Amino acid sequence: MDQSHIRNFCIIAHIDHGKSTLADRLLEITGTVSERDMQNQVLDTMDLEREKGVTIKASAVRLAYEANNGEPYQLNLIDTPGHVDFNYEVSRALEACEGAILVVDAAQGIEAQTLANLYLAIDADLAIVPVLNKIDLPSARPDEIAQELCNLLGGDPEDVIRVSAKTGANVDAVLKAVVELIPPPGGDVSRPTRALIFDSHYDAYKGVIAYLRVVDGRFSLTDTLQLIATESTVDPVEVGIFAPEMKPVESLAAGEVGYIATGLKTVGECRVGDTLAALPTIGTTIEPLPGYRAVKPMVFAGLYPTDGEDYGVLRDALEKLQLNDASLVYTAETSDALNFGFRCGFLGLFHMDIIQERLEREYGLDIIATAPSVQYQVVLRNGDVITISTPADLPDENDIEEIREPWMEIQVFTPETYYGPVMELVTRRRGTLTGQEYPSSGRVVLQFEIPLAEIVIGFYDKLKSSTRGYASLDYEFAEYRPDKLVKVELLVNKQPVDALATIVHEKAAYLRGQALVSKLKKLIPRQQFQVPIQAAVGKRVLSRANIKALRKDVLAKCYGGDVSRKRKLLEKQKAGKKRMKMVGNVAIPQEAFMAVLELSDG
User: Is 189 among the domain residues?
Assistant: First the structure.
């Protein structure tokens, strides 16, 4: 198809503003999905996405659209996630497009991720089509929200498209706007063939399947291709488009979006952000396309198989998931308590939950996850600076000059009514207010600086519950700052459990240690011997509790007689318990490793 009749666009919005529902209506109107096959969240192919009602993976689909003048258009749509933890997915999808539909809920208005995703689209130099969704709701304020959008983007409030994706009202106007306002793709069919890989997944039969945005030239099944970064040579198994299921075609030309089944069985050979090109002739070089910025994980946790024999399966599963989710990073590690596993880096706590559930569902693994932690910088007395992502790696306190922790800049959008509860929540977690704005009547944007460790666990849930679900959150990394931080170690039966150690502020160490000991006392099952649980900083014990032994009443048969007989039986039992204590190991359940998540702010 002529490039002037191609449009590449994505849908961006805050979570739960109706992106996937709007995508469903666009598929319906263009006849891409038959009425018989239609279901809610067509592009959300994972069970997990349907259950949680959120988009986790960006999905591509080709729509055939006939304009009012009868001319056919090829519209390539990429539906993107809205949750802050999947921001990297959004930034990658934007690189494959020339325009973006910005969806805003007519009842809730502009929220944190609305702005964050809009700024990503503006940085990528995309044309923006503003759309107001959910105008059928009784609480909708279309005129007010349209004015808010125009204050942000410029233009006339009357030009903002008002739709109800649920009922399908006025959705056809969105397709017209895409054709009229979004420019056609650049690129030249006559130039050397090259494409940007913006996503990929692994197929057991076809190998690695690369999702492409073709920039120049034309790909066909007979070409021999090369991945520029890894220098791997590829003979395509299949070339195709998303309709929305994968559909083979003869070729993909400049400006089009589709996929190539590479046949590669080693997932490391095909990476997101690489350039796929036709094998250059001798003496010519292919200029690689600008890839993606390296993603920086924010939250780290250990993932260990409950059965040690599953270690290899977990490694292969993580390798394949990383191909599908480039923001996941992992390295092998060992733990005294949990044996062999992996230290994984995630973009946030929700991202961690999703990865853990995918490993359990898609690969049938039974996993123990340790409590999440963040990366710290440690300045040693000899001047060296090391980075640690687990408290177990913290050097001896005598060797440490200072510990630096990551601080974040966060934006909280909330109705003015909840100003007090939000301020109280953030200041209780060592945050400081840096600014505030009033974008519209009754709403306030509060800007804070806060340590990342304080928002990793429970912060988002507490923010939602204290504002009745109205507040929204966006965050980005600011810098590392030194503070008085200490490692709180947990000793179970006088043995340190590295997976339960945490790094906390000096002032919070006693309360954290006491709360964790109390929690573990309830979670660790009673043994045949008394089990002491201790929280310690260095050699100083902060708190201790004993789990009582399961006792057999050896005195039951002594209903009379001399006391020396009773003493002899008790001493015999005591000797047996002592011997057991030396050889016995304490079984620590998974709930104990996640207990740190449930500790209250107090």
Answer: no
Q: Which two tokens stand for residue 493?
A: 């039966």
Please report, as a single letter, which amino acid is at residue 2: D
pLDDT tens digits, one per residue of 224-278? 888 887 778 888 888 888 877 788 888 888 888 888 888 887 766 777 777 888 8
Asked if 131 and 36 sit in the same domain, the reply is: yes
For residue 110, give the DSSP letter.
Answer: S
Q: What percent of the chain has pLDDT over 70?
A: 85
The token pair that represents 599 in the structure block: 């500790």
**Alpha helix ranges (H) inside 66-138:** 87-94, 112-123
How many other C-beta atoms lie within 10 A of the C-beta of residue 513?
24
For the CA atoms of the chain, what is the radius of gyration? 29
Inside any domain, residue 293 = no
Amino acid at 596: V
Beta pairing, strands 485-492 & 495-496? antiparallel
Q: Within this chain, do residues 356 and 404 fall inside the same structural domain, yes or no? A: no
Those residues of the chain that have pLDDT short of 50 are: 44-45, 49-50, 282-283, 581-584, 600-602
Q: Domain check: are 11 and 133 in the same one?
A: yes
483: β partners: 403
Say if residue 510 is exposed, middle or buried (CB neighbours under 10 Å; 0-12, 13-18, 19+). Answer: middle
Kind plus residue range of the DSSP H or E element containing 214: strand 207-216
Residues 24 and 72 in one domain: yes
416: domain range? 377-483
Q: Are residues 311 and 381 in the same domain?
A: no
Sign of CA dihedral 130, 463, 428, 371: negative
Other CB atoms within a 10 A radius of the CB of residue 226 amount to 18
* DSSP string covering 536-572: EETTEEEEEEEEPP----TTTT-SSS-HHHHHHHHHH
Same domain, 336 and 268: no
Given this model, what pLDDT does residue 52 score? 52
Domain membership flag for residue 186:
no
